[in-house]
Amino acid sequence: MTPNETQSLLRLMAWLSPAFPVGGFAYSGGLEGAVHDRLVADAAGLKAWFTILLGHGALWTDAVLLSCSVKAEGDPHRLEELSELGLALAGSAERHLETLSLGRAFLTAAQAWPDPVFKALPADCPYPVAVGAVAGAQGIGLQQALAAYLHAGVSQGVSAGIRLGLCGQQAGVALLAALEPLIATTAERAGTAGLDDLGTATVQADIAALRHEMQVSRLFRS
Questions:
Q1: Percent of the chain with pLDDT over 90
Q2: Which residues have a Cβ under 8 Å from the Cβ of 111 and sit 6 or more positions away?
Q3: Helix axes 169-191, 43-56, angle to 10 degrees
Q4: d(CA 7, CA 214)
Q5: Which superfamily is assigned to 3-9+25-212 in CATH?
Q6: Which pTM was predicted?
């Protein structure tokens, strides 16, 4: 790899690591609600859950927003529009809280790598727009950013699934390996996508996220 490619890899590894202080461990993206409603009950169900989210759900939407944010090249007006759209697309109060909280925390922590883009972003910035805008400003390749973001999203979800008792760590690692081709394909699709390609078909997942807000006993904030 060239020095620039190595730098990009290191930054993506830092920004999307579970250790980066965004608090992603506190959210399940509606998965806990799906487990409560018995829509997801085991490792096979968890694989199906992420297959659908990558192809037709929230992870696809995030990927398109991230792609558009990288291409915005620090344009404040464009980034504000994308932020407003990203927040409007959140299907429940808790999903809105999740993307907004992660976005704010990411921008706070990522300022360890100073860049003018932080002044171009609105205060209320959803997570994929925040990551995309900063990655674009830092010269990180679009496909690298998309693949890393999607892998991190699935990895965080698998971790939530393990804590919810859907599978063990070995099965979780096997699941990540099995989803690699789909993550790569989704990243490739999103790299050429625009806002006209936004859209989801995950009604049950959206309902599970809404029902999660009323659960009495739970581990996660979404």
A1: 98
A2: 118
A3: 10
A4: 44
A5: Urease accessory protein UreF (1.10.4190.10)
A6: 0.98
